[in-house]
Amino acid sequence: MHKIGVVIQRYGADITGGSESHCRSIVNRLKQFADVEIITTCARDYVSWRNEYAEGTEQVDGVPVHRFKTDRVRRQRKFDALSQHLYTHPHSYFDEVDWMVQQGPYAPGMFQFLKRRAADYDAVIFYTYLYPTTFLGLQYVPHKSILVSTAHDEPPLYFDIFRMLFQLPRAFLYLTEEEKALVHRTFRNQHIPHETLGTGVATPQMPDPEAFRQKFGISENFLLYCGRIDEGKGCGQMLDFFTRYKTTHDVNLTLVLTGKAAMNIPVRPDIRMLGFVSEDDKFQAMSAASVFLMPSQMESLSIVILEAWSVETPALVNGNCAVLRGHCTRSNGGLYYTDYEEFETCLELLLDNHTLTAALGKHGKAYIDEHYQWGIIDQKLMRIVDKVAAHE
């Protein structure tokens, strides 16, 4: 049985970020086939990286989690100013290294642990190219590293510091074909072994939409968004588009939001902020929704859109995101927009044409059944792990 280390910026049962959720689900699959340990920080918040978990080792889902303190809190205004300068002005390689350290999380104990324990692991999986935990940590074990880059088209991806990073791993696990194409196009590293992994989607046997409606007192048609409610996720535009639509259309329609709010949300009777909900409530909400919204321009997979399709709910997504547009094109399970006029036209069509929405939902479900079942994912995952562990 292989011994696998998994390095990620933050990890816990109460952490719901995209890469963190994907990591946790993959770890719960890996532990069936390998001896797995998590190597992470004491941070819970992805903005400050403040130490909130206790340093040391604990068990999460029956897996050892080694936590190391970050040595600084991110100074957000200073970091934002530095980022904007580097995105728009000539600068040096060392400016980018400074940017990486300022961004955090920077946990010296983690790097010492990787250096000291490197020989204990047959393979080490690193999550998310963007953080010091990967950028610095991977350099200690490049010969046995697997990178889940979660890359998307954003300014930092083109920094010089990442040209080296994307040549170092022994293998890559990509989340979508679009991510793979982006990385290969940007870094010319097609020769490094890789798999397009995706994720498995497991839904409750019979989600009950009426149970959700009764529990939360929602009788009218509603649009649903699940995830971090953040300007960076396109939620500001989503709220604007929704309120503009309601102003010009006489329709009894509510927007339901679940997840953590990192921005101000308008106080309106037709916008319902539910905060965190249970997995059962989430899937019941998805099955009850008329349309699932995904407004982000920067997604490397979007697990929630796959979950919505698993219960046959059609999607309306931001077409400026190649990953979301690709999902819709391959599945024929949703529509996409690039501006308000397209959003308005698509939403009107989805709300008025029930034959279309039912067909889109069924196409989405077929897409999940074909590509996102755990048996398929397990085979891809272990194929790469075995290859790296065997030093092929």
Describe this protein's structure.
The structure is a single chain. With about 400 residues, the protein is an alpha/beta fold. The protein has 2 domains: about 5-200 and about 375-390, Rossmann fold; about 210-370, 3-Layer(aba) Sandwich (Rossmann fold). Helices cover about 40% and strands about 15% of the residues. It is built from 15 helices and 14 strands. It has helices at about 20-30, 75-90, 95-105, 110-115, 130-135, 160-165, 175-185, 210-215, 235-250, 280-290, 305-310, 320-330, 340-350, 355-370, 375-390; strands at about 5, 35-40, 55-60, 65-70, 125, 145-150, 170-175, 195, 220-225, 255-260, 270-275, 290-295, 315-320, 335. The strands form 2 sheets. The protein has an 8-stranded mixed sheet. A hairpin with a 2-residue loop joins strand 3 and strand 4. Helix 2 packs antiparallel against helix 3 (about 95-105) and helix 8 crosses helix 10.
Summarize the structure.
The chain has 15 helices and 14 strands. The chain is α/β, with parallel strands linked by helices and 392 residues long. The chain folds into 2 domains: 3-200 and 373-389, Glycogen Phosphorylase B (Rossmann fold, 3-Layer(aba) Sandwich); 209-371, Rossmann fold, CATH 3.40.50.2000.
SSE diagram, text form:
Elements lengths: L2 E5 L10 H13 L4 E7 L14 E5 L2 E6 L7 H13 L4 H11 L4 H10 L5 E5 L4 H4 L9 E4 L12 H5 L5 E4 L2 H11 L6 E3 L12 H8 L4 E6 L8 H14 L4 E6 L12 E5 L3 H10 L2 E4 L8 H8 L4 E4 L3 H10 L2 E4 L2 H13 L1 H18 L2 H16 L3
Parallel strand pairs: 1-2, 1-5, 2-4, 5-6, 6-7, 7-8, 9-10, 9-12, 10-11, 12-13, 13-14
Antiparallel strand pairs: 3-4
